[in-house]
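Sharing in case it's useful to others searching the archive later.

Someone asked me privately for the predicted structure of Sugar kinase, so I'm posting the question and my answer publicly. Question first, with the sequence:
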Amino acid sequence: MSGALLVIGDVVTDVVARHRGPLAAGTDTAAVIRTLPGGAGANVACWAAHWGCPDVRLLGRVGADTAAWHERELTGSGVRPHLVVDAEAATGTVICLVDRSASAERTFLTDSGACLRLDPGDWSDALLDGVARLHLSGYLLFSEPSRALVEVALGAARARGVPVSLDPASAGFLTELGVGRFLTLTEGVDVLLPSRDEACLLTGLPDPADAAAKLSRHLPLVVAKQGAEGALVAVSGTVRARIPAVPAAPRDTTGAGDAFTGAFLAALLSGAEPEEATAQGCRAGAMAVERVGGRPPAAVR
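And my answer, the predicted structure tokens:
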């Protein structure tokens, strides 16, 4: 494995509430509730380290309220954190409502807090020293300061010949941003890792395979995550491979896509071809849904 992985993205506190059946409006619904470290960017970094990447770095922004805790959690997972402590905003918080039925589907209530206040002033080209791949959390595109940071980081990566991947992160926020604007902002990205819903939203096509193929005419490599149906690998307007999912008994789907992305990137950095890296991503996604929260159990060091 040659070179480090640098992830830029969100570090948040997850409050995971696992309930069974529909929420009872206007009264109580019994749930099992845990407070855990999370954030798409931070989760990807932790899963990449867990999957054997020996040098994973994370640039994120947190509030003073939980900065020390998040730094300890990241370091303990094998990630080298570069956390900017925001003097005004608290760390972002996400309430994850997880239905404990068979699908373990989750719904997020998101207060982005400090994480979307990353800006070009938080960037240094030295962050790319020794870096072989840069990964961007799509949540960065949903605020003006962090969009400006993305532009700076993309420019610096291009100047050094560092390939860049991006996970769109949220179909809901993508709708607000606008598809045309998203595609413009992601010019220069080498690998796009959308979910099924995100791929269909970005293309206006109902079939995920058609959507992945269309996106791959705009970006060199598209790996479309399909949940229980595995993943699609698309290049130059064609779906090149359909990778099956690994069977799992879901407890919580929070962070499954982040696990996929982290393992996929670790595999790419180790020299795997996209199809094999995608299979590794499916393995990690299956492991993730059988756990509560978005992080792996421990890094493999």
